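Two folds, back to back.
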Amino acid sequence: MSTVSTSPRRGRRVAAFALGALAVVAVASGCSSSEDSSSDATADQTAVVDTLSSYYSAFGADDGPKACGYLDPELAAKLATTGPDGTCESAVNAGHKNAGAEALTKLSELKYDATKVVVEGDTAKLSTKDVAELNGKATDSTAQIVLTRDGDNWKIVDLG
């Protein structure tokens, strides 16, 4: 693989990209780490929330290979272009390093309401606004977190 050099400015973009739009939600949230996977949620809705939680857990643990495993191959390849050595794993690790302890803690504490996940066929969407509101944060964001079914699993296509 080719080596990609990163400037300090690019390093900040790596962190922002790796954190995705949910980082905005996390900055001011101080919620418990439990997920709100209401008993009314379908298995697919719960699996989507599990995927998001697992991604941010791996990101927070500085486990680039595991975090990248939750990403759709196209998103992982796009993220790889921002990594110091051109890999998704190095991009996640750089994002982790640049995020800071407070942001990482808040990401690990995000709550999700699985019943708000909209599943249509092999695509699932969750509004960042719904996540923000559940975590006590007001936002005008209209961004969507998008996942796609990959066999029995869900892969993150867009973090909003």
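---
second:
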Amino acid sequence: MLITLPAGIILLVCLSYTLPLGMGNLDLLVEMVKESISQIFTYRYLSDLLVIYQQTSGDYTLKLISASLAITLFSLLVYSYYFPKLKSKTVLRVIKYLEDIESLPVLGIVFFVHWMSVVIYKETSIYLFKTVGTPREPAIIVPLVILSIFPIIFLIKYMTPYIKDVYQSNYFVFAKSLGYPKYKLFFSYVIPNLLTFLENIMKFIYLEMITVMLFIEIQFNTGGLLTGLRNTQIMPPNSNSPQVIVISYLLLLLSPYLLMSLLFKLINIFISNK
């Protein structure tokens, strides 16, 4: 059985702190868990969470991931809406092109963009893309494209069979023959039937985004939550409750996913009450 995103991250935290302790030292593990829980549910913890967010350029990480999620979902929405106008050969050709793009390595795309930007600047003195940033002036456009392009490709490839089945269903064909407007059928029938599959796959897309985001923060020298999380590995041994600091980073990283899950739940409630 697959582990959900929150459960998987919590399990990762537990393993990272329990494995070094040894299986026989359960009392120390229990005390550590109690101490961590008691510290989390305090006002001071929320204050520390805000400090971590500000000191590590957390707004850059969360805004970039949130924008990428919005672009990915909007791209799927547009693709789903215009899907009936695409011929079968066109769909197969699109999928083939997407598979070719997906086979390209992220590192190769980044190096190509860097090289292209330098060449254009040398020839025209036009600074096309910011390829190296700082925590105060981070690069935006190129990281956002890199963060969004592969999730869009993966999502379109994965959802295409389900989109096709919905449009070919007896209900949709019959309702369309009765003269129901396409946009009403799209929002009242197509989206509700795709929502379950979309909700299940988005957790894996979010995990992919987090992985790519770590590469972006390092490659583009922007700093961010994942850079801060990586730096917890070199914290001094006498640091107070290092596990609580790690949990703080993970909670901040989870916030866009939790908001997205809440949005899915609200849409489901709205649809079920109609």
